[in-house]
Specification:
alpha+beta, 2 domains, BirA Bifunctional Protein, domain 2, eight-stranded mixed sheet
């Protein structure tokens, strides 16, 4: 017998799962559209040269490659690949349609991506990203707006204990320069730093040694991070002031480091006036390994979850790889799967969403009343209700048992007596009570009961 489980790191989505996903996507879309973002979709498959070289060495290894087909299959070469993220395809779209897009292109995109990663809790090989990006402006207002949109989306979903951690790629360059890591080795160092939450301090120390960095390098870095962490128990405003002071001391006199701190200070000022006020904290150890980031980088964390609920940053050079001229850009991606995992564990979904696929089930009294039951179901659907129609003339007890198992709160019955009186009986499956109402009053009565 063939295996019936999906491939490792992939999942089937049963009805309850789909309802949860659609609920989360609906909330996020509503928030994004209130911020003026427009929808975009791109193909699942990209030319492989579109993706290679955009994510660093480790990212290249995680791309799902598609081998050439037909007579070229035996070559073992790949010419296509599954989409790794939504940002690089966006850059390609902007390069392709630049003259058709507005000066400031604000787009949101909610689609699946694929990575040949090792599956873990909340980490899959196929997963959805919920992206917002703004292209065309270098203003720090963009970072503030993106933080606000992501923050409001999570708040609308019921999250209250999240933090938006923020750092700057140029600050990372400055601190690596300060510990004498050569420019050609810095990309590899950032990839290792980005794994800090996965492998811990000792894991980072070990990998630094394996890369040939002296032991004192990681000691100095983690001493710096520890000094910043000394302010972690304070409120966010005090924490950010303390962090800026320590960051300034460590990169003092470094031109790029000074630029980074100026921009981070500006972002913090702007954020305090918008929807992410009180949520943004400086995190000088935040790396984010994707090689295309050029400015501020961001990540959202919640207690009890290794990794993040989302992340992003500024990438002013990426579109230029396709267009031949730089287009400033900044974006943020919420991880749908991780959001759903946390919301499920914390029982954050609305009870009605999780519990019931229909408001009412219409039963079938006997074979001669099938058409009447169909007609009643249609009347209720036209009135805006979610209606399930039992498909067979089973014993009424079996029909009630089926509705109860599916957590449908009400069952409509038109028996011989009800038909003679022009009525419909409504059985409340939660309390077990039953009442009869005139058929023309059924929709009003049901709406009151729900």
């Amino acid at each position: 017998m063939p295996k019936t489980q999906p491939a490792r790191g992939m999942r089937d989505f049963l009805p309850a799962d789909v309802r949860r996903r659609e609920y989360v996507i609906g909330v996020i879309k509503e928030v994004y559209e209130r911020y003026g973002f427009e929808p975009l979709e791109t193909p699942a498959v990209e030319n492989i040269e579109t993706l290679l070289g955009k994510y660093g060495e480790e990212g290249n290894q995680l791309i799902f490659k598609i081998l050439k087909r037909g007579v070229h299959e035996s070559s073992g070469e790949a010419d296509l690949a599954l989409r790794y993220d939504l940002t690089v395809p966006l850059a390609r779209v902007v390069a392709e349609y630049r003259d058709k897009l507005p000066k400031f292109f604000k787009r949101y995109q909610i689609q699946p991506v694929w990575r040949a990663d090792r599956p873990a809790r909340g980490r899959f090989r196929e997963f959805y990203q919920c992206d917002v990006d703004v292209l065309g402006s270098r203003s720090m207002v963009v970072e503030a707006e993106i933080c606000a949109a992501a923050s409001e989306a999570l708040t609308a979903l019921g999250f209250a204990d999240f933090k938006i951690r923020i750092n700057h790629r140029k600050h990372l360059t400055a601190i690596l320069d300060a510990v004498q890591i050569n420019e050609e080795d810095q990309t590899r160092a950032l990839v290792v730093l980005d794994k800090l939450d996965k492998i811990g301090i000792e894991g980072v120390r070990t990998e630094f040694l394996e890369l040939g960095f002296p032991a004192w390098v990681s000691t100095e870095l983690f001493d710096f991070f520890a000094r910043v962490e000394q302010g972690s128990e304070s409120d966010n405003l005090t924490w950010n002031g303390h962090s800026l002071s320590e960051m300034r001391k460590f990169v003092e006199g470094h031109p790029e480091g000074e630029v980074a701190l100026t921009e981070l200070t500006r972002i913090l000022d702007l954020v305090s006036a918008g929807g992410a006020a009180g949520k943004v904290v400086l995190a000088p150890n935040l790396a984010r390994g994707l090689s295309y980031y050029t400015g501020a980088i961001m990540e959202i964390t919640v207690p009890g979850l290794a990794g993040s609920l989302g992340g992003g940053g500024r990438y002013d050079n990426l579109v230029g790889m396709f267009l031949g001229q730089d287009v400033p850009a900044c974006g943020f991606s919420l991880g749908l799967e991780r959001i759903i995992v946390v919301m499920t564990e914390r029982e954050m979904f609305p009870e009605a969403l999780v519990s019931s696929p229909a408001d009412i089930m219409v039963s079938i009294w006997n074979e001669g009343s099938v058409a009447e039951s169909i007609s009643l179901a249609q009347e209720l659907r036209s009135a805006g209700f979610r209606v399930d129609l039992y498909p067979e003339a089973d014993k009424l007890g079996k029909q009630f048992k089926y509705a109860s198992a599916r957590l449908i709160p009400f069952v409509a019955v038109i028996g011989d007596d009800e038909r003679a009186r022009g009525e419909v009986s409504i059985k409340d499956m939660r309390s077990g009570t039953q009442r009869s109402v005139k058929r023309e009053s059924l929709a009003v009565t049901l709406r009151e009961l729900l």
